[in-house]
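We read letters as residues; the fold follows as tokens. A sample entry reads:
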Amino acid sequence: QVQLVESGGGLVQAGDSLRLSCVASGRTFSGFLMGWFRQAPGKQREFVARITWSGGITYYADSVKGRFTISRDKAKNTVYLQMNSLKPEDAAVYYCAARRIEQNEYDYWGQGTQVTVSS
């Protein structure tokens, strides 16, 4: 059974940094994409960043490009989201997700971690 467990959220001030972690378990993730999404109150969930588990190829939403960095540590089965220069509009619940590269939809989701950014 696949499990994705996020951690690292919290309350920070605008301009601060946070690093989110997502520990993945239950299978091997070779051939998978690992993604981060976020959902703010009253808004739809939106894509933030993704990385291929095997090759480490990354892709970012324009809104976070240059400020956020996604990475993975295969030995620890963990995906990270380093968030720098945080803005109030980055406040949301952040979710880790996984899908096979050839699929369009994400199959597996974590429970989310709250990020709050005060101005």
User: Anything to note?
Assistant: The two ends are 40 Å apart (CA to CA). The longest strand covers residues 92-100. The chain is about 0% helix and 55% strand. The mean pLDDT is 97.
